[in-house]
Amino acid sequence: MRVLVVEDEQLLADAVATGLRREAMAVDVVYDGAAALERVAVNDYDVIVLDRDLPLVHGDDVCRKVVELGIPTRVLMLTASGDVSDRVAGLELGADDYLPKPFAFSELTARVRALGRRTTVALPPVLERAGIKLDPNRREVFRDGREVQLAPKEFAVLEVLMRSEGAVVSAEQLLEKAWDENTDPFTNVVRVTVMTLRRKLGEPAVIVTVPGSGYRI
Questions:
Q1: In this structure, what DSSP letter does residue 23 have?
Q2: Is the bond preceding 204 in cis, omega lying within 30 degrees of 0?
Q3: 20 to 30 A from 50, CA-CA: which of 32, 104, 122, 213?
Q4: Residue 119's pLDDT is what?
Q5: Which residues bind DNA (predicted)?
Q6: What is the DSSP string of 126-143?
Q7: Residues 106-148: tens digit of each pLDDT
Q8: All residues at 6 or more sequence positions from 62 whose CB lies less than 8 Å from its CB, including other chains
């Protein structure tokens, strides 16, 4: 899952990004509304965590623009105000969910994951395919009943492949969904991660390489 965090309180923004990355999400961070619009124009995000009170371009205007462009990204709006009228106003702008500050990080993570599931065809919370069981909320993976310990990026790649339900996923798509914008697109990081993931999942191999196209389970 790829997430854009838009928050002008840099310490909070960086803390949220770090926490989400530990949950195997690819996260980009910006600190104002103008930068948010620039990122949305060039990258595809599953969820935007959007502070409402932003400099340069207000969070309301960022939300309006996302809706106007018809982007399927889900918006989780943050605000220091807990007034019902503010929550209603944010939802009427096109936000998909609303979370007042201060918030528990566990709740933020749960809401981001819930919104991420809504960007695609609805799938069950726990994914199962080819003897693999993946629980995004618990960060657990089992292969034929055996628990498999994965690094965050390995988990992220496996989740993308599981969610594709047998469709081929290109290396570019994996790079986009599992890594942030600071990753060099010309590295072999995807191939290396898939190789490590195959080894940890064990035999028989369930990740199939489709020459010239990508990978699938």
A1: T
A2: yes
A3: 122
A4: 62
A5: 124-217
A6: SEEETTEEEETTTTEEEE
A7: 999 999 998 987 765 555 678 899 999 999 878 899 999 999 9
A8: 6, 33, 36, 37, 40, 48, 50, 54
Distance between CA atoms of residues 9 and 63, nearest Å: 19
CATH annotation of 127-216: 1.10.10.10
The class of domain 2-117 in CATH terms is alpha beta
CB-count exposure of residue 55 (10 Å: 0-12, 13-18, 19+):
exposed
pLDDT, one tens digit per residue, over 74-93 is 999 998 766 666 666 666 77
Gap between the Cα atoms of 175 and 15, Å rounded: 23
How many degrees, rounded to 5, is the angle at CA 125 between CA 160 and CA 70? 60
Coil, strand or helix: which one is 118?
Answer: coil
Q: Measured between alpha carbons, how far is 98 from 119 in angstroms, rounded to an integer?
A: 17
